[in-house]
Design goal:
InterPro entries: Aminotrans_IV, Aminotransferase-like, BCAT-like_C, BCAT-like_N, Class-IV_PLP-Dep_Aminotrnsfr. This protein is α+β, with helices and mostly antiparallel strands. It is built from 10 helices and 15 strands. The chain binds pyridoxal-5'-phosphate.
């Protein structure tokens, strides 16, 4: 027989939208400065209204892709490279964009302007859209585009990294190259790899593929400086082609000209070779360069932040602050 339930065990039933709104206002701790939703058809500034439908195919089946871009001192950095990758991911996930590329771009710029945010990032998602909780997206009403702005501290606080971080090798199985090569929202392996690193006192983990080659981290690419002065980034055939990593490949020849490096390349690098390197670093849009000084409990090189990692950081920071790929946000 069912235990008699007391008054306190009863689940409240909110029949009116205003009661739900009040609860959302009480609970919404995160204050995101702006969101765009194609379901609503506009930009939302009230944080407690920044919601997506529960029957969206991204929510219950992971049928969505996403990408990001950095806002630095009122400019969007490398938005076009991120949008290119976004549309490649969309095509691999068989999601048609509800808007042409130029409209997506314009929405993201207008949303950033409406947010007033000068430093932070934007994240945007393309999904199969709201539907009927089925596995097939046939019942979805049509693809949806969502975007959000997240604010961070001012760019002046993003100083050259003085200290390096620790890395571990992940024991979480790596994604199949087909899935690793697109930025789908299915980040469970990445989340578990990140949690594993945190549990073991490291900043992040590194995947080694089944042939023993270095792959990537759960939200970053990896780069190495060999003892003979080569900058090596693991080839992109089994991993996400990182916008930061690709920018480093384009900019680093300047360090060759300056005599700091011998060469720059994307190539397969075995874990054994990588462990012999003089320097190691993580690369990702939000970092953008983070020197790694310890890997699986062993010092990388001399265990100190390397000079070339700092030179790569300086190159990227200069590109973010005054390079050619910046869109000034038209704040009003
Ligand atoms: C799995 C993975 N690899 C690499 C990266 C780095 O990519 P990007 O430099 O474009 O931020 C990311 C970024 O989120 C990622 O999720």
């Amino acid at each position: 027989m069912d235990k008699m339930r007391g008054e306190d065990d009863r689940v409240p039933v909110y029949a009116s939208g205003s009661q739900v709104l009040q609860k959302l206002q009480e609970k919404s701790k995160q204050r995101y400065p702006a969101m765009y939703s194609s379901v609503i058809g506009g930009i939302i500034l009230d944080p407690c209204m920044m919601v997506i439908p529960m029957d969206d195919h991204m929510v219950h089946r992971g049928h969505g892709i996403f990408d990001t871009a950095t806002i630095s001192d009122g400019c969007l950095y490398e938005l076009d490279s991120h949008l290119d990758r976004f549309l490649v991911s969309a095509s691999k996930a068989k999601i048609d964009s509800p808007f042409p590329r130029e409209t997506l771009r314009s929405i993201l710029i207008q949303m950033t302007a409406a947010s007033g945010c000068k430093n932070g990032s934007i994240k945007y998602f393309l999904t199969a859209g709201p539907g009927d909780f089925m596995l097939s997206p046939k019942g979805c009403t049509g693809p949806a585009f969502y975007a959000v702005v997240t604010a961070t501290a001012s760019s002046s606080s993003r100083l050259r990294p003085k200290e390096g971080v620790k890395a571990i090798t992940s024991t979480v199985p790596m994604k199949h190259p087909f899935f690793a090569g697109m930025k789908s929202v299915d980040y469970l392996p990445n989340v578990l790899a990140m949690m594993e690193a945190e549990e073991r006192g490291a900043y992040a983990s590194v995947w080694i593929d089944d042939e023993g080659y270095v792959a990537e981290g759960p939200m970053m690419n990896v780069a190495f400086i060999t003892k003979s002065g080569e900058l090596v980034l693991p080839a992109f055939d089994k991993i996400l082609s990182g916008c930061t990593a690709k920018r480093v490949l384009a900019l680093a020849p300047k360090l060759v000209e300056a005599g700091l490096l011998k060469s720059v390349k994307a190539a397969r690098i075995s874990a054994g070779e990588a462990r012999q390197c003089a320097e190691m670093m993580f690369l990702a849009s939000g970092l953008p360069v983070l020197p790694v000084v310890e890997w699986d409990g062993q010092p990388v090189g001399d265990g100190q932040v390397g000079q070339i990692s700092l030179a790569v950081y300086d190159l990227l920071r200069h590109d973010i602050n005054s390079g050619p790929d910046r869109i000034p946000v038209p704040y009003t």
